[in-house]
Amino acid sequence: MLQSYSACSANTRSRSMISRLRSLVLPARGLYARPSAAFTHQVLVNTETRRSFNVLSSTDAELTKRRKRLAWRAKSRGWLELDVLMGTFVEKHITDFDEHKLDLLEEVLELENPDLFKWFTKQASVPDELLKENEVMQLMMEYVKADHSGEFTIK
Fold first, then answer.
1. Each residue's pLDDT tens digit, 66-105
2. Are 125 and 96 spatial neighbours (Cβ–Cβ below 8 Å)?
3. Which of 3, 19, 31, 61 has a CB 3.0–4.6 Å from the CB of 26, allowing a cystine?
4. DSSP string spanning the chain?
5. pLDDT by residue (tens digit) across 13-32?
6. What is the pTM assigned to this prediction?
7. What are the distances in angstroms from CA 37 to CA 16, 54, 59, 81, 142?
């Protein structure tokens, strides 16, 4: 069964790519394509199982790629404590972030580990201008202040 699909936008070149994909791959695999209701992406349907697969538009694919990249950066900072705190925060909230909030998250990820650690452990206070200007930093500080002991279990 065809597992992965390339992202297609609504421009003419993408439409021609979709028609080539239909003519070359889909009939041989028992799939056919139909446009989605919003016409922002195509839906591929397997004729045998009637399972649908969405083909994202190029902007959705780029946004998904950016979210994955930022989530990886949050989980692999090099300090275990920050990896856990920032990684779980990002996993929980990143799907709700738009482009602007992703930019703000990227600003937070650019901050130095020692500063973040001091702020999260309340050894130093977070600069007021950072909290006022960066909504994601505010959310992250609220997340750190909340009790998350039930989320971290050792098996």
1. 999 999 999 999 999 999 999 999 999 999 999 999 999 9
2. no
3. 31
4. ---------SSHHHHHHHHHHHHHTHHHHTEEEEE-TTSSSEEEEETTT--EEEE--HHHHHHHHHHHHHHHHHH-SS-HHHHHHHHHHHHHHGGG--HHHHHHHHHHHTS-HHHHHHHHTTSSPPPHHHHHH-HHHHHHHHHHHS--TTT----
5. 555 555 555 554 444 445 44
6. 0.60
7. 20, 12, 17, 44, 39
Encoded amino acid at 102, one letter: L
The CA distance from 112 to 110, in Å, is 7
Q: Which domains does the chain have, with CATH numbers?
A: 12-56 (no CATH), 62-145 (1.10.150.250)
Selection from 138, 114, 139 nearest residue 128 by Cα: 138
